[in-house]
Write a structure and sequence with these properties.
Layout lengths: L1 H11 L27 H12 L2 H24 L6 E4 L6 H8 L4 E5 L14 H14 L2 E4 L2 H9 L7 E3 L16 H6 L6 E6 L8 H13 L5 E6 L5 H8 L8 E5 L6 H6 L3 E3 L10 H8 L3 E5 L2 H4 L9 E3 L4 H12 L2 H18 L2 H15 L6
Parallel strand pairs: 1-2, 2-3, 3-4, 5-6, 5-8, 6-7, 8-9, 9-10
Helix pairs in contact: 1-15, 3-4, 8-13, 11-14
Length: 378
């Protein structure tokens, strides 16, 4: 969603964007940030991603350069390209190489680097590090989502002056407080209960057990009219369902499963409190910005990338990362103070509108590019 959001932001401020991507993940013709899933190419990539052994998957990542090289070269030969902007993927060197060959500014957007904690493991770390160092060295600008990534990349010998930190963002027209969650509440039998929500993949990395433990403590303290509402799919769902069927949580957790991205605002509209149970020092979770754009009261861990967006007690609540009791206290505070929920939600929406839309990010990218090379105004 990040790269699609950037594409949308660039289009909105008047620039033409052409996306080169694996089949099945391109934007649709009108530029909405929706993936075109369901085709044969998409199914093949989904199968490889989900079932191939890690070594085979990484070899496929290397092999993708053949397709990318051909497609990018075809586009560059047509001319009229002012910037090649790429979301960094491990082993993918073809975009930067071709941009350098055609003497076109090349920006690489980095959300993770080799050797750091990630949802999917990695085997060929030394090779990945050598390739990414070359990519970053040859890039005209490196756009990162956290200071942590900037520091780590600079430590690897990359000029810190060309590394720009820009957190993620949200589409404030798609995610806004007027979206009605009533239909979602009806569909999932949520009624008028207090809903504590989460959107994202159901994977161990998100530490949803911590959320379950904190809510179990909330229920044990007497706030029984509460439901946890999980929106998303993932291989860890079975484990979570087993946890949700025991103890205080029994009958208090609702699994929505996967929904179309276009329906995510309606799902968020059904939530009273939105939680980010876990993140790390280098990520900038998009869900955080979408929660805030919906004017929701947000609870998130007090790690640096999040604390640079959430001002504790002003536009959200921060809890001590990994601390069950700290998370519980934040949730209880919001359950028992509806006025505070509303106040934090309004401030959260204002923060996003003022600083964290895809349009803001797109304008900064264009500004950096104009500092390198004269490009025509939109």
């Amino acid at each position: 969603m990040h790269i699609l959001g950037i594409a949308q932001g660039l289009r909105e401020i008047g620039h033409e964007v052409v996306i080169v991507s694996p089949r099945g993940v391109e934007t649709n013709p009108n530029g909405n940030p929706e993936s075109s899933h369901g085709g044969f190419g998409s199914r093949v990539f989904d199968w490889i991603s989900s079932h191939a052994p890690e070594f085979v998957f990484e070899i496929c990542e290397l092999g993708y350069n053949v397709l990318a090289y051909r497609n990018i070269r075809r586009l560059l030969r047509q001319g009229h390209v002012d910037l090649v902007y790429e979301r960094y993927a491990f082993f993918t060197w073809s975009g930067g190489y071709l941009a350098r060959k055609w003497r076109i500014p090349y920006f690489v957007e980095v959300n993770e680097i080799a050797g750091v904690e990630r949802v999917r493991g990695q085997l060929l770390v030394p090779l990945s590090r050598r390739i990414e160092k070359k990519i970053f060295k040859n890039a005209d600008a490196v756009i990162v989502v956290s200071e942590f990534l900037k520091d780590r990349i600079a430590e690897n010998g990359i000029d810190a002056g060309k590394i720009h930190v820009r957190a993620n963002a949200a589409d404030v027209r798609m995610f806004h407080p007027d979206v009605d969650g009533f239909a979602t509440r009806q569909r999932f039998h949520l009624g008028d209960r207090m809903i504590i929500g989460f959107t994202g993949s159901l994977l161990p990395w998100h530490n949803l057990e911590l959320l379950f433990e904190a809510v179990a403590d909330v229920l044990d303290e007497g706030d029984s009219d509460v439901r946890v509402f999980l929106v998303g799919k993932g291989s860890y769902r079975g484990n979570l369902e087993r946890l949700a069927a025991t103890g205080s949580l029994k009958n208090h957790v609702v699994f929505a499963g996967a929904i179309d991205y276009a329906q995510v605002p309606q799902a968020l509209g059904a939530m009273d409190i939105c939680v980010v149970p876990h993140s790390n020092e280098f990520r900038s979770p998009i869900k955080l910005f979408e929660y805030m754009a919906m004017e929701k009261a947000v609870v998130a861990p007090d790690i640096r990338p999040i604390a640079q967006v959430i001002r504790n007690g002003e536009n959200g609540l921060l809890f001590k990362a990994g601390d069950r009791d700290s998370l519980k206290r934040a949730i209880v505070d919001l359950i028992r103070n509806p006025g505070k929920r509303a106040e934090l939600g309004r401030a959260a929406r204002q923060t996003i509108c003022e600083s964290h839309t895809w349009g803001h990010n797109a304008r900064e990218i264009v500004s950096i590019c104009r500092g390198i090379r004269s490009i025509p105004p939109a």
